[in-house]
Amino acid sequence: MPNAPMRYTLEDPATLAIALAAEGGLAVLGLGLCWVLGMPPPQVLPANGSLGASLGWGAAATLPLLAMFWRLQRCVWRPIARLRRQARWMVRSLLGDARWPTVATVALSAGLGEEILFRGALQPALGLWLGTWAGVAGAAILFGMVHPMSVAYFVVATLCGLYLGVVTEATGELLPAIVAHAGYDFVALLALRKPDQTGRRPGQEELLYSDR
């Protein structure tokens, strides 16, 4: 009798540890890049400003991202509808039975690791060579390239990267982008892992071939 396929879930400590290590590796990569280029390391906490104000800006910056997410959930354009099915299948597979602290941990690690690398290291590095706004755009494109689920996802991730880059430049701090990224991921992951109206999790074959 063939063995059942192994199912990975982030409630499994080993799988969660791998996911957190991957996101932490992005932060280490960002710090290493700054060291190689002779740049100061990304400063997560505000140097001179108020921590409360930075957290407040981050919370406010989350709202446009959530508005975009809400709109994408209702978009009927086929590439976006397909992306929505792909994202739901992936999130439900990994986080379908996860408790909210696990979801929060994953979201926070993504916000920290990805923002330290892309907005904390790559954006200023590219900005030194190409100019501030070209650096914002370049880091956003690279951010999109590491989200290669589909062309639609690349475009959406690049737009999110542009937005987070603008937030970083506008506030002069990295923490608001981290908070916005983590807050968006937390809400989006909770929303995407919810079962559909039938209460079932979509299978991969349905994900790949359904065009409804």
Automatic annotation (TrEMBL):
Protein name: CAAX amino terminal protease self-immunity
GO biological process: CAAX-box protein maturation; proteolysis
Originating species: Posidoniimonas corsicana
Residue ranges crossing the lipid bilayer per the database entry: 16-38, 50-72, 125-144, 151-168
Matching InterPro entries: Rce1/LyrA-like_dom
Keywords from the named record: Hydrolase, Membrane, Protease, Transmembrane, Transmembrane helix
Coiled-coil region(s): none
Domain CAAX prenyl protease 2/Lysostaphin resistance protein A-like: 100-187
Keyword check for Repressor: no
Keyword Hydrolase among record annotations: yes
